[in-house]
Amino acid sequence: MKGNPDPEGARRVDRRRGARSPLETMFASLRYKDFVYLWLGQVTHTSALWIDMVARPLLVLEITGSPVHLGLIIAVRSVASIGLGLVAGVVADRFDRRTVLLATKSVVFGLSALFAALLLLDLIQLWHIYALTLLRGATQAFDQPARRAMIPSIVPPELVTNAMALSSGSMQATRILGAGGAGAIIALGGIDAAFAAIVLIYSAALYFTWMLRTPEHSHKAYAGVRSLGDDLADGFRFAWSNPTIRGIVLIAAGYFTFAVVFIYVFGPLISKQVLDIGNSGFGYMMSAMGVGGILGTLALAAVNPTRARGYLVMGALVAIGAMLVGVSAATYTGSVGLTFAVVGALGLCQSWLHPLVNSAILQEAPEDMRGRMLGILSLDRAMATVGGAAAGFLAAAIGPQLAQIVFGAACVLTASAMLAYPPMRRIE
Fold it and tell me: Candidates 1.20.120.450, 1.20.1250.20, 3.90.650.10, 1.10.287.3510; correct CATH number of 26-215+223-426?
């Protein structure tokens, strides 16, 4: 297993060996030791995150029974990303990224332990959920820019898309284990047990991040808050002047506004109010989504596309919108099996969009701008605040099935509009 990447050396080895098989290409980034530790840290982190994504909405429904609170909780989780995602991008460029990851995971571990303690002691109140969700979202904003900005420094340039696909694949795989496991844990031990499991899993995430060793990237020394503001302004100027990054940010905004809310709002409502499969059923639904996701990311890692990624991004968003409509259509038949099958297809479509968007951003930005470009992309994730709140109110007004059809159609319209934007068509 290799340490830091030697791109020219890797290419010489590849020429001597000849073309790799699809299986070798699929897992090529795992030949690099530091990427393995980064990947394992993400696997454990996202396992805990998926358990939380299943358990927290169910806890809110158990306490309030209200789809409005369900939508507002996702809004609160995301609202910190509006400002802190930008700051996190600057921090990822200005400070050691491994240190940023360790600090982030330590704080999330502490918040998770406090939440579990309140729940186990039967002291939890609705305002606790809102407050701790806000704090966790604020801390979480610093994780992704630092983690993803590391990837081009630990794998060769030609493997960035492959590494992004494997990173996204870990999210999908842990959706199977985390979400499905959450359903089983909740069925056996209740929601309290799910939050206790989150604390244990985060301890492993801290360990793997501690084991990560990467060279400190070139960056300016910290010179006070004013210098951070100047860095942020430089990042905005670069992003706005680069038509490729501008196009990626716009299409990702549509995805986070209209598609992501399925997990937080429509999925739990459909499971409990439409299909009547309960808390554990929602966990299994997320597992079905994860099965499709892992198949999709493995396929993307094997293909490792380096051309026409703009068209692939737009096509993925069209497919996501079509599958969201399809999920609602399947629920009208009353068939749980058919609904789960379409949810699996939805997971497959989503699994292509994330790594393609992130690899295009990272390869377009210079090394000392990568954190800021990913931070700017977090503004799109903050659009889930708008989408989550709107989804909750719309579901309360017209029902979750029709509301989800509206949101699916909005994904298709967003991608269709971006097809008329020439820089998106030119992304290689």
Answer: 1.20.1250.20
